[in-house]
Design brief:
With 550 residues, the chain is an alpha/beta fold. The two termini are 62 Å apart. Helix 14 links the parallel strand 6 and strand 7. The protein has helices spanning 7-11, 15-48, 54-98, 109-150, 152-161, 164-206, 212-262, 268-309, 386-394, 423-427, 437-446, 450-455, 473-486, 503-517, 529-533; strands spanning 347-354, 364-371, 374-379, 401-405, 409-412, 491-495, 521-525, 537-542, 545-546. Keywords: ATP-binding, Membrane, Nucleotide-binding, Transmembrane, Transmembrane helix. Pfam families: ABC_membrane, ABC_tran. It is found in: Cell membrane.
Length: 550
Amino acid sequence: MKPFDQRLLHLAPGARAGVAGLAALGTITGIAAIAQALAVAHLVFAVVRALPLREPALWALAAFAVRGAAQAATEVLAARTGVAVSTELRSRLADHVLAGGLEARRDGTAPLTLLTQGTTAVEPYVARYLPAFVASVVLPAAAVVAMAVLDWRTALIPVLTLPLLPLFAALIGHATREATDRRWAALSQLAVHFLDVMKGLPTLVGYSRAHRQSATIRAVSDDHRRATVETLRIAFLSSAALEFLATISVAIVAVVTGVALAEGHMELEIALALILLAPEAYWPIRRVGAEFHNAADGAAALDEICAVLDRPTTAGDTTARDSTTHDTRFAAGDVPGHAPDQDPATVRLRDVSFRYDADLPDVLHGVTANLGPGLTMLTGPSGVGKTTLLELLAGLRTPTGGAVTAPRAHLVTQRPFLAPASMRDNLRLGAAGDPSDTDLHGVLDRVDLGDLLARLPDGLDTPLGDDGFGLSAGQRARFALARALLSDAPLVLLDEPTAHLDPDTEVRVGAVIRDLADERTVVAVAHRPHLLDLADVRLDLTPATIGEPR
């Protein structure tokens, strides 16, 4: 772990002012600590020699006040900077992960762990370790200089022993870093396994195999527990070693000054000042050694966050997406091959190919088409790549060949995301502006969900369960279509929007889609004849090819 990771300032520019403020407050605290030691020594000397106490008492009180105020300001600024940094890192990491396309989200647990425990672990690094590190740079040097001015022979003791503390800390830190990496890996493994078990719990319960996972969860938890205890053991041992070395060094200073005072080679005031300054020289390094272990998790998490942020995204870092739903948006200017003078509602595919893995054959190959405003239907047998083509148009996947040019899009998947929140909040996900309740009632009536809403006692305040629990598959599809109506995206992508609807409802929903296509560019995947008959253009897909519009 580096003493100060400069990547933090690059990833979280808002932290620069906070770090600069912490450095300034650390310098003020160091100067106040030196003044405090000298003032207290002078005050005690005045008491012993029966000298006037007013002036030394005022100086001591002023030094105490300045140091206390600086330390209090450091605590407040460090806490605020830590929260600001973790929030900025979390926002930037979420934007990057959501902009990375589906390929970058195959393992959703690792990014989720970084977004929660990872960014939270950076807070102690900023709020506790950085102030301690600044103090360890300023205060020991100031204390040694003050000691050298008073008695250069005594100052040789910290000059010779102080370098041993960071040396030991670096040696111990190397072992701590390895232990911390193992602990972080164990935590990630625990999170991955727990999420996998939760996702597969209905299947495990259905086959009466849920109890068999108890032993596996216990084993993974024990690995995390052992890694945590190993890290704590190293932390305690290293802290004890640093405390022992610092205590011995301060004791040597006390013995040397005591002998010099007894033999009459040193004044009482100077001896007191040296004894009071010695702990100030060692205490900051002891503290940074203790805080090092508190911040080790943050440093390991920062490495993981940097590794994720260094990975390229699908459409560049400027891509903007709705991170809350599957209704994905991206700016046309961010898509390779965009022509600024083209119709903003036009979709262009130029020799587009895609494969899921380098060892697998192309799902799409040589796709070339221009899709203008209106309703375009993608048809073809299952597995031919219709959903994949929609994901390419939405910017969720990166083509392995060719170029996709498309405006900002709103994608309605076969299983749309519904959050465990009220119907009102779910409808407003991805909506343009702030639609009123009247607007929400209007779109629900258009997609034939008005009667359902009227039967609910709480109306739009009715909470939905996890993943839309409480709605049927057909109601979920129409709910997602209502969200598409509320968006202002010029391109709407629909994946089997009427698959779960009865014939009468399909007719009514088809009319809504037809009206939507009169206003925007709509590209839909469908198999049912009624919806196909509404199309302005049909693209018949065959394996690894695409047909001409007809």
